[in-house]
Design brief:
elongated; alpha/beta; about 240 residues
Length: about 240
């Protein structure tokens, strides 16, 4: 029983609350512009910087937004089916029927359609998203890795009718020192360690959260009451520093 209690205490260390990092702030701002103005916006950045966390946080604040989390298996029909179901409809029918019912449901609704992992969508699915926007006036926020922008433009810039609809565009970079300080504050660690954490996490939110967790665990194992720079350096060796695109 004691081992179970101790294990659960240590597990809680991994679960940091959401804080308003620069990534969360940027996505919230562009999302709100798309939502209120009925425009198309794009937020693109590296994997692991907190884009998905940010869009889910937006949904908590604005429940009239619709979130679609796409994956590599998505087709145009898959996208229509998901939107159809999110609108409380049957999720059944041919593409024409699905499109007609989605348009009727969204027309002049003032809602926001968010597609996370939008870089996974093939051109036809992106084109359907544009058509939904054009026919209903709803805002659309496309969120994904940097390759999303290339997909919208086309290899030879042949998708001008698609990319020209994008009103707001933000390339999301790595998190900054101020972001790290906010995360360290909720993790009950010294903000003076922010530079070390930023250095060894390479400015990636996901790696930073892992690094905070590892550092806390290693400090405890070694009988230290607090994390220091040497512990952070040692913990960083447990991270897989893959290049995110």
């Amino acid at each position: 029983i004691n081992n179970f209690i101790q294990r659960e205490k240590e597990r809680c260390i991994d679960e940091l609350p959401i804080v308003e990092t620069s990534i969360v702030k940027y996505i919230a701002e562009i999302g709100r512009l798309c939502h209120t103005k009925g425009r198309i916006g794009v937020c693109a950045g590296k994997a692991g910087i907190g884009k998905t966390v940010a869009v889910k946080e937006y949904l908590k604040n604005y429940i009239d937004a619709i979130l679609i989390e796409s994956d590599s298996g998505y087709t145009a029909k898959s996208l229509l089916l998901e939107i159809h179901k999110r609108l409380g409809l049957s999720g059944k029918g041919c593409c024409y029927e699905l499109m007609s019912e989605v348009v009727n449901k969204l027309n002049h609704s003032g809602r926001l359609l968010i597609i996370d992992g939008a870089e996974n969508l093939p051109y036809r699915a992106l084109e359907i998203t544009r058509r939904i926007h054009d026919k209903t006036g709803v805002g659309v926020l496309l969120v994904g890795r940097n390759v999303l922008v290339e997909n919208l433009r086309g290899i030879n810039n042949q998708y001008e009718q698609l990319y020209s609809r994008v009103k707001y565009h933000k390339f999301l970079d790595n998190i900054n020192v101020a972001d790290v300080e906010k995360l360290l504050k909720v993790a009950n660690q010294d903000p003076k360690l922010s530079e070390s954490y930023l250095q060894y996490s390479k400015g990636n939110t996901r790696r930073l959260e892992h690094l905070i967790s590892y550092s806390t665990g290693i400090a405890r194992i070694n009988g230290k009451t607090e994390v220091d720079s040497s512990v952070i350096k040692e913990s960083s060796q447990l991270l897989l520093m893959a290049k995110a695109v």
